[in-house]
Amino acid sequence: MKVLMLNGSPRRNGNTSIALGEMEKIFVREGIETETIHLGNKDIRGCIACLSCEQKGKCVFDDLVSEVAPKFEACDGLSGGWKPRLLCVGQCDAGGVSNTPVLQYVF
């Protein structure tokens, strides 16, 4: 089993990272493989509803979303952390990640 952990904080080693690290310790203790991806300081475009992901199987924008989309498909679980105020910004990491079909149901 594998859990993909998303760190949406712009501070790579801030409080969100510490919280995800605590979760990771529990997952590892339970024999669950983890991978953490840091999104907060990456340039990620928001979804423009072009449906390229549906028609071609990948986002029209060649950014971090296209790079990690296969990891979303391969993981068994998903965990993430963002500062609540970041979720209100249109071009924030959550907006960019939500253009993947797997996460459209999460956000």
Summarize the structure.
The chain has 107 residues and is α/β, with parallel strands linked by helices.
Structure description:
This protein is an alpha/beta fold. The protein contains four helices and three strands; from the N terminus they run βαβααβα. It has a three-stranded parallel beta sheet with strand order 2-1-3, with helices on both faces. Helix 1 links the parallel strand 1 and strand 2. The radius of gyration is 14 Å and the shape is flat.
Could you name the key traits of this structure?
107 residues; disordered C terminus; 3 strands; single chain
Q: Which percent band covers the strand fraction?
A: 15-25%
Oligomer: single chain
Helix % is 25-40%
Number of helices: 4
* Overall mean pLDDT: 76
Main sheet strand line-up: 2-1-3
Q: State Rg.
A: 14 Å
Q: Can you tell me the residue ranges where pLDDT is under 50 for at least 5 consecutive residues? A: 86-107
Note the overall shape: flat
